[in-house]
Amino acid sequence: MQFFATQLLNGLTAGVVYAMLAVGYSLVYGILQQINFAHGYVYMFGTFVTASLITSGSPLWLAIAAGLVAGAVIAIVIERFAYRPVRGNRLAPTVTAVGVGLIIENVAQLIWTSRIRPMPFPFQADIIRLGPVVLSPLQILVAAVGLAMAALLWVISTKTDLGRAMRAVKDDLATAELMGVPVDRVVVTVYVLGALFGVVGGILYGAYYNTLSVTMGFSGTLNAFTATVIGGIGSVWGAFAGGLFLGVLQAMVTGYVSSALLNTVTFTLLIAFLLFRPTGIAGVQVASRP
Amino acid sequence: MTDTAETPKMGDALSVSNLTLSYGGVKALAGVSVVVPSGEIIGLIGPNGSGKSSLINVISGAYRGPYQGEVCINGTDVHDMPAHRRASVGMSRIFQGIRLFDTLTVEQNILLGGHVHYATGYVASILRTPRARLEMAEQRERARAVMALFGDRLLPRADQQVLSLSYANRRRVEISRALMTAPELLLLDEPMAGMNPHETEELTEQLRALNRAQKISMLLVEHKMSVIGDLCANVYVLSSGTVIAHGPVGMIQQDEKVVEAFLG
Amino acid sequence: MMSIVSKAALRRAIPAIASFAVASIVLPGLCGTSAFAADTDAVHIASTAPLTGSAAAYGIETMNGVHLAVEEINAAGGIGGKPIKLSEYDDQCDPTPAATAANQIISDKAVVAVVGNVCSSATLAQMPIFGRVGMPVLAATTSSPALSAKGFENFARIIPNDDIQGVASLDLGTKVLGYKRIAVLYPSDDYGQALLAIAKRAATASGAELVAAETYITGSTNDFSSVLANIAAANPDALFLAGYYADMGAAVSQSVRAFGDKHIALLANAQTQVPEYVSLAGAAAEGTWVTNVYDINNPSEQNKAFVAAYTKKFNAEPGVQAAAGYDNIYVLKQAIEENKGSTENLMPVIRATKHEGAMGTISFDKNGDNIGGSLVVLRLTGGKWVFDDESTKKLNAH
C-alpha cells in the first residue's frame, strides 16, 4: 500500500509536468489543427534561461519571470515569422517549425553547451512524512502549480472573451475574422499561452528532477506528445488527463512490471491510440469545414 | 475615424465605384458601382453567377485578393483594411450558407459579434477585474436585447448549442450576431433562403423594424421578388458582372434587359 | 601456434604494406626460420598511440609517461646494459592509420615489443598484423574486453579492462565493505547490459544477492523517482551505479526523496569520478565509493616518485594515461630482465610478470589482462574524491 502510494505520487508528479507540456501542443492544435513542433524547443529555452539565472544567483522570482518572458517572446517571434506567413498551408508550418526548433537548439548549445546541468531550487532535498509515505515539498508545489494552471485554463476557456474567440477561431477562422475577431492577435496569444504552460512545465521538471539538457527540447517532449495523443489532440482537458494517465501508468509499469519495458509500453500506447483511437480519451472530433 | 466633410460619399452607408475583379483572367465584376444611401434598404438581384456574392465578399473583406475601383463604408475607403477591422467602421454581414460557430451556444455566438467593441484586454479579462466583469455584464445585456428582437425565438434557447436549432433560428442567430457588432450597414446574402412563407414574412417585418428603429442601412441579396418589393426602395440588377439596371422595383420589373437576363 | 617469422625474410617477401591474403600464401614457406635478428646495441621498442586527431591529448599524455620511464631507465644504465631506443608511430585512434603504423612497425626487424596503445578500436585493427610476426603488444589504456576475448597470444595490457573494473566496483561493496544486498541502476544500452551481467556474476560469486536491477534510457530519462522507489522497496545495503555520470548524478540527486532515512551506500565505476557527477548529485553524492585504475594521491612509494618526477619534467599533474605509459615501460623492462636479458619469446614472460608500479600492483591473467590488483578506491568526502588507502589494500588483497 505504501509502495503503491509512493508510485502513485511519483506518477502524478510526472503526469502534471507532462500535462503542462501537452497543453501547449493541444492549445495550438486546437485552433489551427497544426502540431507545433517547435514547442519542445521553446520550453527548453525558457527553462534554461530560468536555470542559468538561478545558477548565477538571481532571485528566484526574477529567474522564473525571465524564463516565462523568454518563452513568450520566442513564441511571438516564431508565430510572426515562421507560422503566420504559411498559415493555412498543411505542410509548410511543420517544416518551418522543425527548422526553427533546430535553430533554437543550436543557439541554446552555443550559450549553455550540451552539458547536462543541475537546476538548484528550494526544497530539493527536503521530505515530508505522511505516515509511511514520504512526500517532497516540491511534489506539493508541482500539484499546486498544476491545479493553478488548470484553473487558469478553465477561467480562460469559459469566462473570457479570449476563450470564446479561441473557440470561434477553431470552428471557423474566416468567419471569426469577418465578425470582427482579431484573429492574428488571438492566434499569437494562443502560442504565447502554450509557451507559458511549456516553460512552467519545464521549470517544474528542472526543479523536481534537478537535471536539464539542451536535448530535452526533442527527447523530453516524447512523453508530452504521447500524453497529448492519449488525451485527444486539440483538447486541453484531454491533455491534462493524458498527462496524468501517462505519468501514473509509467510509474505503475516501473513499480509492478519492469523499468525495462517503459519505452515499449509508451510507444505501444502511442501507436495504439494513433491507430485505434486517434481522437484520444477525450474523443474530440476536431471540427473541419469543407 | 473622423471623416472629412469634403468626401462626396458622405451620407452614403456604402459606395462602390467602378469595381472590377478578375479570378484567373475571368472577370467576375466589371466596373460595378453601387450606392446604399444611409438608412435605406437597397436590393441586389441577378441570376446565379452574376457576381452578387463576389460583390458582397469584396465589400466585407472575405475576398482578400486585388481589385480595381473603390469601396467606401461610411465614407472610409476599406481597400487596405483587414476584414476584422471592417466591423469597427460599422459593417457586418450574414452568409449565403449560414456560418455559425458550431461548438458555441446561441448566446456565445451572438456575444462574439461584440468582440469588435471590447475595451477589456486579454490580461484584464483573465484576471476578471471589476471593469472586465462590468463590460462582460453589459455585453450579455446587449446580447439579450438583440435576441429579444426575435421575440421568444432565441431567448429561451440562449444556452443551447447552435447545432440543435432549426434552420430559421440558426439564421436568426446569425443576424443577431451581425447586429451585435452594432452595424450601420448590413450585408444580407439571401437571408430568406430555406425559410417557409410564414418565416419569410416574419423576418421581412423584423428587418423592416430594424431599419426603421435603428436606422440600419442594408444591402439585400434576395431571390424572392416579393421580399425585395416589400423592403427595397431601389434595386440594382447584376448580370455577368455588370449592373444592367438600377432603379425602383416597379420600373426594374418592366426593363427589357432585366427580363432577358432572367429568362435568357 | 603462431609461427615466428624472420623479419628479414618477411621484408623480402612482402614489402611494407602486406595484405593478409598474400601473407597466408607466403607464410607457410617461411615457417621455422630463425628468430629476431639481434641488434646488440639497444632494446628497440615501438610505440603506437594517437598523437594527432580527437584523442591526441590522451596519446600525448601516455607518451609523456613513456618518455619519462625511458629517460629514467637509460640514465640508470638501460636494460641489462642496453639503452632503450624508442620509435614512435601515430595511430590517430583510427583503425586505418593504425593498420598502416602496425605494418611499418613489423617491417622494422629490430623492434622487440610495442607499447602505448590508447584506443581499443585502433588496437583491434592492429592485432592481426602484429600477430603475423608474433610481435608482443603491451597496451597502455585500451579497456575494451573484446581485445582479450579474441584470444590474441601476443597481447597484454597495463590497465584492467572494463569488465574487471566493473567486477571490482561490486567486489568493493561485497568483499571489502561487506554489503549483502545489492541493487543495480543501469542504462538500457549495450554498456549497461554488459555491466548488469557483470554485476550479477560478481554478486553471486561473492555470496551477495542482487535484490533489484532497474534500468533507464540514457539521454531521455530524467525522472528516476519510480525506479528509485523500486530500489528503496527492495531494501538494499548498497546501490551500484552502473551508468553514465550525468544520469547517475540526476538519479542520486533524486534519491534523497526516494530513500528517505534509509542508508544505501553508493558504489560507482571510474567514469563517475568527475566534477559533473558531484555538481549534479549535490549533497546526496557524499560518501559515494568509486574504484579507478589510478589516483594521483596514491601514497605508495612508487607513485610518489613517479608524481614527483613527472611534475618536475612536464610541470603538470599526471593522470591515468601518464601513469599507464610509465608503468608500461617498466613492466617491459622487468619482463626482459626476468627473461635474462633476452627479447626472445617475450609474451609468456610479460604475462607472468608481477610489477609494483605507479598505478599499483600489476599482474596478468592468461589472456594478458591486468587482474585488477592495481585498482584504487576513492570516496567522495566533503565534495572531494579522497584516496582510501585501507579499502584499496583490502580490495587488492582479494
From TrEMBL, chain A:
It is found in: Cell membrane. Keywords: Amino-acid transport, Cell inner membrane, Cell membrane, Membrane, Transmembrane, Transmembrane helix, Transport. The keyword Cell inner membrane applies. It is a multi-pass membrane protein. The keyword Transmembrane applies. InterPro entries: ABC_transp_permease (IPR001851), BCAA_transport_permease (IPR052157). Coiled coil: none annotated. The chain crosses the membrane at residues 12-32, 37-54, 60-79, 91-112, 132-156, 186-208, 228-249, 256-276. Belongs to the binding-protein-dependent transport system permease family. LivHM subfamily. This is Branched-chain amino acid ABC-type transport system, permease component. The lineage of its organism: Bacteria, Pseudomonadati, Pseudomonadota, Alphaproteobacteria, Hyphomicrobiales.
UniProtKB/TrEMBL annotation, chain B:
GO terms for molecular function: ATP binding. Pfam families: ABC_tran (PF00005). Transmembrane segments: none annotated. Residues 14-261 form the ABC transporter domain. The keyword Signal does not apply. It comes from the Bacteria. Keywords: ATP-binding, Nucleotide-binding, Transport. Coiled coil: none annotated. This is Branched-chain amino acid transport ATP-binding protein livG (TC 3.A.1.4.1).
From TrEMBL, chain C:
It comes from Mesorhizobium escarrei. The keyword Signal applies. PANTHER family: LEUCINE-SPECIFIC-BINDING PROTEIN (PTHR30483), PERIPLASMIC BINDING PROTEIN OF ABC TRANSPORTER FOR NATURAL AMINO ACIDS (PTHR30483:SF6). This is Branched-chain amino acid ABC transporter substrate-binding protein. Belongs to the leucine-binding protein family. It comes from the Bacteria. InterPro entries: BCAA_transport, Leu-bd, Leu_Ile_Val-bd, Peripla_BP_I. Residues 43-381 form the Leucine-binding protein domain. Coiled coil: none annotated. Keywords: Amino-acid transport, Signal, Transport. Residues 1-37 form the signal peptide.
